[in-house]
Amino acid sequence: MITQKQWAHIERGSIQRVTAINLFLDDIYHDAKILKDKVVPKDLVLTNKNYSPQMEGLTLPHKSYASICGVDLVRGADGEFLVLEDNARTPSGVSYVVENRHLTLRTFPDLARATSIRTVSDYGQRLVESLRQLAMNPSLENPQVVLLSPGTFNSAYFEHVFLAREMGVPLVEGRDLLVDNDRVYMKTILGLEPVDIIYRRIDDQFIDPEAFNPKSLLGVPGLMRAYRAGNVTLTNAIGTGIADDKAIYAYMPRIIRYYLGEDAILPNVETHICREPEGLAYTLQNLENLVVKPVGESGGYGVVIGPRSSKKVLADLRRKLKAAPDNFISQPMISLSVAPTLCSRGVEPRHVDLRPFVVSGRSTWVLPGGLTRVALKKGSLIVNSSQGGGSKDTWVLA
């Protein structure tokens, strides 16, 4: 449960953060003032593997690059909410938010009726309404939205099917679309139908074999040409991964202050940037007490928790840090909050975090609840589903 007061704080902080992320992305792909003013190191952005030169000079409606953004929060020992990381590429998990709620309402109807809870069931409709606001041609009365999935072998395919149904839009794969004269069309039994907005769940490098990986069979040849011609909207935009890079994360308080003139409502976890000499020195001196993360990874992969690692693992990590310090950040091990969790031996405490989903169109809205992820392994701090984590229904009190 999250109280109304707690949620108001989370909501304000999440909107502030995503607003700054979108302004940052618009800036670096246009005038790059933040780089010229040396608030963020130029080489950290321009040499980053998530930076996309194809986006330079492309202006998006409402400057909405990360139209759907997940902000991962943890609670420290003092109860303060802290941002652990940002998810600005293709954040997943919102289907579990809605399905968990449906399951809870079916299983505990009396408990739910006795408690005033903010709804999450309108997420699909709210999302598609926001996406339609991002059409490149604002005069379109009812722009066609589709959800582009890699297909049935993707681990999040359940979510793609669920969201397409909730949004009331077609679920397509790359082979269902084609580009003709820089215009995107969907193949249907009645012929070709124009597509205006693509909610993509395919990574940048696979979305267009003409522009990125030529071996990709998942994407649509010519999609970037149509995008740059202003004939289709891709959301989230190409190149948003630079904003959720873990090295950029460390600069987020400065980014918020630069664009909004405000201090971060939701502070970062203390972060040491190993590309900076003092950050690397501190990390190497305190390796056994820190959590070390590779900057370009997601899903919990590559994370080394110092206090729980063997001497061999730490020695190997030390070599990697010295060889390629730019690839890592380090943070103190946070004493994550726990929640009662039903396990095979009864109810036991398990570590949790919270991912609010922030949707941006003409305005910005936060789904009242978000994804509470739970580390099901006893003592584990890794809550990612790809690493054996689970999820919980999350109630925001009205």
Automatic annotation (TrEMBL):
Annotated source species: Iodidimonas nitroreducens
Top-level taxon of origin: Bacteria
Annotated PANTHER family: BLR5612 PROTEIN (PTHR34595), SLL1039 PROTEIN (PTHR34595:SF7)
Domain Circularly permuted ATP-grasp type: 1-375
Pfam annotation, one family: CP_ATPgrasp_2
Protein name (Swiss-Prot/TrEMBL): Circularly permuted ATP-grasp type 2 domain-containing protein
InterPro entries (UniProt xref): ATP-dep_Glu-Cys_Ligase-2, CP_ATPgrasp_2, UCP005522
